[in-house]
């Protein structure tokens, strides 16, 4: 009986090791191919209908070429808020396991964006960094009277001001003819005013982990109003060449070094 059990165990071990080796040789490649096929098919689903809910975009973040974290952006719902048709947006990000050994940042944001006027009505932020106190704030925008309220204080805003998360979606929703001529967004969620200038620079075939994707290349330049050039950030964003304009890749140059953002997964 003991010999039979030993033989069965050896047979089981051989089958297990053989199966594991087979998976390492062929299964992973098959899984990667299936994954790529999934992402490409998702990118092509309802490509002419623009932003819809729910939508989930997953990105990897790299700083100076090194993996630094992951970010997830969502369109949670499109509905009514104070009598306006709005997009309910959210996002969260955290540093990678490697970076977290030295310095950890984790946070989330929420935004309510007026879909017709493309300005912000509400913005909420929570973040926590190693060695720093927790940051929490709620911003309420009054676009008619041109002010925002945050932490009990009131600050003036320019017409059609948008929050940082909302600006990401304004680029996707705005009339494309405006992008061709160049367009400036007022971005503000605290005291400082920032201007984000965006301009369509042409169509480009982008090599991605999922294969070749036809994209619109958009130039971006963010700067503080009445500030020196050291506060400026510039770069390019590549979005799918359709009505959805899903950001596939972003390269940003900062004074602290280059930052890149790459689409990893999505669910439309």
How is this structure best described in words?
The protein is an alpha+beta fold and 268 residues long. The protein folds into two domains: 1-44; 45-267, YmcC-like fold (Beta Barrel). It has helices at residues 2-44, 97-100, 164-173, 176-181, and strands at residues 55-63, 66-81, 84-95, 105-114, 120-129, 135-142, 147-150, 153-156, 161-162, 183-187, 194-208, 211-224, 233-240, 247-254, 257-267. It has a 15-stranded mixed beta sheet. It is globular.
Topology overview:
Layout: H1 2-44, E1 55-63, E2 66-81, E3 84-95, H2 97-100, E4 105-114, E5 120-129, E6 135-142, E7 147-150, E8 153-156, E9 161-162, H3 164-173, H4 176-181, E10 183-187, E11 194-208, E12 211-224, E13 233-240, E14 247-254, E15 257-267
Parallel strand pairs: 9-10
Antiparallel strand pairs: 1-2, 1-15, 2-3, 3-4, 4-5, 5-6, 6-7, 7-8, 10-11, 11-12, 12-13, 13-14, 14-15
Feature tags:
15-stranded mixed sheet; YmcC-like fold; single chain; alpha+beta; globular
Quick recap:
This protein has 268 residues and is an alpha+beta fold.
Helix content: 10-25%
Q: Over the alpha carbons, how many angstroms does the gyration radius reach?
A: 23 Å
First CA to last CA: what distance? 57 Å
Quote the average pLDDT. 82
Low-confidence stretches: none
Shape: globular
Strand content: over 45%
Give the H and E element order. HEEEHEEEEEEHHEEEEEE
Number of strands: 15
So what's the CATH class of the largest domain?
A: Mainly Beta
Largest sheet, described in full?
A: 15 strands, mixed
């Amino acid at each position: 009986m003991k010999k039979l059990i030993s033989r069965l165990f050896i047979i089981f071990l051989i089958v297990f090791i053989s199966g594991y080796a087979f998976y390492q040789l062929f299964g992973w490649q098959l899984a990667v191919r299936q994954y790529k096929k999934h992402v490409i098919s998702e990118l092509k689903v309802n490509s002419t209908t623009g932003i819809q809910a729910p939508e989930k975009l997953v990105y990897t973040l790299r700083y100076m070429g090194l993996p630094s974290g992951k970010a997830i952006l969502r369109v949670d719902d499109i509905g009514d808020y104070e009598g306006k048709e709005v997009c309910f947006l959210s996002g969260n990000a955290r540093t990678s396991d490697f970076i977290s050994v030295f310095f950890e940042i984790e946070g989330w944001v929420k935004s309510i964006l007026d879909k017709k006027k493309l300005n912000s009505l509400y913005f909420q932020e929570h973040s926590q960094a190693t060695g720093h106190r927790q940051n929490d704030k709620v911003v309420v925008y009054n676009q008619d009277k041109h002010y925002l309220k945050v932490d009990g204080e009131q600050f003036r805003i320019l017409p059609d001001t948008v929050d940082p998360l909302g600006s990401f979606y304004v680029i996707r929703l705005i009339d494309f003819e405006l992008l061709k001529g160049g367009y400036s967004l007022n971005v503000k969620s605290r005291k400082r005013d920032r201007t984000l200038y965006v301009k369509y620079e042409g169509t480009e075939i982008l090599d991605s982990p999922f294969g070749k994707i036809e994209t619109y290349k958009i130039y971006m330049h963010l700067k503080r109003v009445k500030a020196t050039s050291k506060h400026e950030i510039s770069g390019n964003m590549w979005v799918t060449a359709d009505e959805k304009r899903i950001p596939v890749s972003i390269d940003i140059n900062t004074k602290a070094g280059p930052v890149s953002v790459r689409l990893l997964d999505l669910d439309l």
